[in-house]
TrEMBL record:
CDD domains: TIM. The active site is at 101 (electrophile), 173 (proton acceptor). Keywords: Cytoplasm, Gluconeogenesis, Glycolysis, Isomerase. Its EC number is 5.3.1.1. It is found in: Cytoplasm. GO terms for molecular function: triose-phosphate isomerase activity. It catalyses: D-glyceraldehyde 3-phosphate = dihydroxyacetone phosphate. It comes from Streptomyces chengmaiensis. The keyword Lyase does not apply. Pathway: Carbohydrate degradation; glycolysis; D-glyceraldehyde 3-phosphate from glycerone phosphate: step 1/1; Carbohydrate biosynthesis; gluconeogenesis. This is Triosephosphate isomerase.
Length: 257
């Protein structure tokens, strides 16, 4: 048994305006308040425009729910129209910043070099990066999923020192399973998450690797989460579509019930 606290994070993608965000987080907080859920860390990852509202609610009501951004600029400030910096996100008391989600890699051509700069920007401003890695369908069909994912991992972590790396969250998200309803089998998830932990041990040390939380993401739902979470190297879930339904997300958070 590891001491890693599972992290269940809801990636809302480009959904829920700031008013809907408040109602949604209130619903989550209410549903999770009747039981001690300290054994599971719960986070929401709303669009940038919701973060201030979520912060006000979490601060005001002293909620245990954490929150973070879906992206972060590699820059601190300046002439970067449309970008949001780690400085701004830490001012909003974000805990997490997602880096390298496959939708950003696909639609915004983010590569490992940029992801690496974003990981460093997050650490610089006291945020915990959730670094997303994972293969597309062609790579999976060619049986190259482990090598491909480990290359992304190494690219994202280049020159990141052990004392920072041990706090990062890695999200293994096979692209073919994201938003498709096609979830990886628990064995598929374990194969790659186990290889990620082994590579982290090689890059840093076993001690560091044992501290790092590795999430699985890709069509996680209340009906499949328990089997995935039972895998020894899966320490949480990054949940997209199912996190938009508060009742369903609560069931995912309560995967042990
Ligand atoms: C995601 O957006 O990170 C994700 C895993 O989406 P979904 O759960 O909808 O597949």
């Amino acid at each position: 048994m590891s001491n890693r606290i599972p992290l269940m994070a809801g990636n809302w993608k480009m959904n829920l305006n700031h008013l809907e965000a408040i109602a949604h987080v209130q619903k989550l907080a209410f549903a999770l308040a009747d039981k001690d859920y300290e054994a599971v860390e719960v986070a929401v990852l709303p669009p940038f425009t919701d973060l201030r509202s979520v912060q006000t609610l979490v601060d005001g009501d002293k909620l245990k729910i954490k929150y973070g951004s879906q992206d972060i600029s590699a820059q601190d400030s300046g002439a970067y129209t449309g970008e949001i910096s780690g400085l701004m996100l830490s001012k909003l008391k974000c805990t997490f910043a997602v880096v390298g989600h496959s939708e950003r890699r696909q639609y915004h051509t983010e590569n490992d070099e940029l992801c690496n700069a974003k990981v460093k920007a997050a650490f610089k401003h006291g945020l915990t990066p959730i670094l997303c890695v994972g293969e597309g369908l062609d790579i999976r069909k060619a049986g190259q999923q482990v090598q491909f994912t480990l290359n992304q991992l190494e690219g994202g972590l280049k020159d990141v020192p052990a004392e920072q790396a041990e706090t990062i969250v890695i999200a293994y998200e096979p692209v073919w399973a994201i938003g498709t309803g096609e979830v990886a089998t628990p064995e598929d998830a374990q194969e790659v998450c186990g290889a990620i932990r082994q590579r982290l041990a090689d890059l840093y040390s076993q001690d560091v690797a044992d501290k790092i939380r590795i999430q699985y993401g890709g069509s996680v739902k209340s009906g499949n989460v328990a089997a995935i979470m039972a895998q020894p190297d899966v320490d949480g879930a990054l949940v997209g579509g199912a996190s938009l339904d508060a009742d369903e997300f609560v069931k995912i958070v309560r995967f042990r019930d």
